Every structure is written in structure tokens, then in C-alpha cells.
Amino acid sequence: MKKVLITGAAGFIGSHICDRFMNEGWYVIGVDNLLTGSQKNIEHLSENKNFKFLEKDITDELKISDEIDLILHFACPASPVDYLNFPIETLMVGSIGTFHILNLAKEKKARYVFASTSEVYGDPEVHPQPESYWGNVNPNGTRSVYDESKRFSESLSMAYYRKYDLDVRILRIFNTYGPRMKLLDGRVVPNFIYQALNGMDLTVYGDGSQTRSFCYADDLVEGIFLVSEKEKIEHRVLNLGNPDEYKIIDFADIIIKKTGSNSKIIFKPLPLDDPKMRKPDITKAMENLHWIPKISLDEGIHKTIEFFHSQINQK
Ligand code: UDP
Asked: Quick check: helix, strand or coil at residue 224?
């Protein structure tokens, strides 16, 4: 039975990846320090004999006795609110944490897939963003703790590829949403849905003209799975996301309509260095993985609203 180790296993995306690999017949070792992840996301796997959870902080060296075929390195606070609350932890997981995970991959001769981000493009001057774009990042602004942590991880990962021929694959993940996002995680999708379902005003930052492109979690996980399984890859760095782009103000209207809420929109200050536009160029992923996001915003938001409804009712 093939074994995969997933860091950030109790997170939003990490936990969905655990599910996918379990369903595909893999043995899954999930690692998480539960700083921003939640045990609830993987509770349903706890009795499964093909799943093992290790509550560990990967900024400490990780010793694993099992053989491992594949490592998916997804541990990192990912919401701007979380990484601004945990700036040092974010930098450390993307430097010392990545160092430890790369050493583990080298020791186990495992394939290594790293969760990078569209944030490596910063506030982009090229639109949409292809993998060849180097980005426009403030190296010491508040968001830099996330951006530079991921950029450093990319650099370190490629150094292991060049120096040790480690099978490194880097995924630049664009805005993703779906069930298991935290109600109060601060990102736009949970914020707007939570506000709309509770009759609160929707908080649009700035004038709402900034854009984001939203990918449903299942589509993303499909892309991650295809990259992880592919024997020979054409490109070490790939964008994964849905190019379906919206102005944030229009997105607020969509959420109000979809929830049938009476909420109004209010405007709040734009966070520092908030990217003005973001949309992935996914030509490479489409050509090389034959992957394309299939779930429309309408359908994905519907499922996400149902999830948030159930969470609020449980409270
Ligand atoms: N945003 C907003 N209201 C909110 C939360 C976020 O207008 O309550 C905006 C935010 O300023 C950004 C976009 O929505 O322009 C996406 O923010 P998010 O925190 O989801 O992630 P980002 O793409 O910035 O990493």
C-alpha cells in the first residue's frame, strides 16, 4: 500500500486531500500542530486503520519510521487574518518547517509536492498571472510574512531538486473555498456567507473593485491529486485555480442573492498591499494534466452556504 505524508492535514485543504488519498486506497499519515487547523476536519478518519494522525510542529525535526512514497507539504496559516496573527510562525513553517520536510523527503526518497500560492505574485502587474511571472511583492510589508515564506519555500524546494534531484513539484494555489473553511477565518468567502446568514452587513474592503478568482475545493483537490500521481511532469511549477474572476463588490451581491439575505454592504479600509487583481493562467495545468475546474461558482457557493448553515445551527 502506498504511503503519503500530508503536513497541514487538519487544515481546510489538507483535510480534503487526506480524504481523497484515503478514497484512492493510500495509507495517509497526517501531520498538523493545530495552530490554525482543526481536529474536527479529520475526526471522521480517526477510526480508519489506514490513517494516522501526528500532532506535531514541523519546525521541530520530524522523525518517521514508516517508508513514505509521497509528501504533500501544506502546513501554513493561509488566511490573511491568521498569518497576520501568527507572523513569526508563518515565516518559520515556510523556512525551518520546509527545510525539515525536504530533508524527510530526501531521506525517504519520496516525491515532494509543495503548496505554494498566488501570493508569490504579490500585487501583480501582469494579468492573468502565468507561472513565468516573477511577481510584485513588498518584501517587508505585513503580508510579506506569508508571501516571502512561500517564496523562500519555493526557492529551497528547487535547491533540493537541483542539488539532490529530489522529485519536487510546486503548486501555486489561487483562492479556494468550500466546506471546512472556518466560519471566522477572515477570508472573503466565509466572512460574506457568515455575515449574510446572520443578517450582518457585508464588509467590503476598499471600494470592492479588486478582483479574485474562486476555485471550489473539490476541483483543486483533483488537480493536486493528478500532479501527485503523474510519473513524469513537464513543469516543476504549476498554477492551480479557477480563472472565473469577480470584483469583490459583485461577489458580495452574489452572496446576498444566494443566501436570500437582507444584509447591506458596508465599506471598510483596504488592508495593506491587498492585491488589486488576481486570476490564474492555467494553460499549463490544462495541457499537461488535462485538468480544468468543473464546479461553477453558483454550485460551489451553494454547497458552501449549506455547510455554513449546518455549522451555525450546531453552535
Ligand atoms: N475582503 C473583503 N471583505 C472581507 C474579507 C476580504 O472585501 O470581509 C477582500 C480582501 O480585501 C481581498 C479579497 O476580499 O481583496 C480576498 O480576500 P481574502 O482574505 O479572502 O484572501 P486574499 O485573496 O486577499 O488572500
From this structure: helix
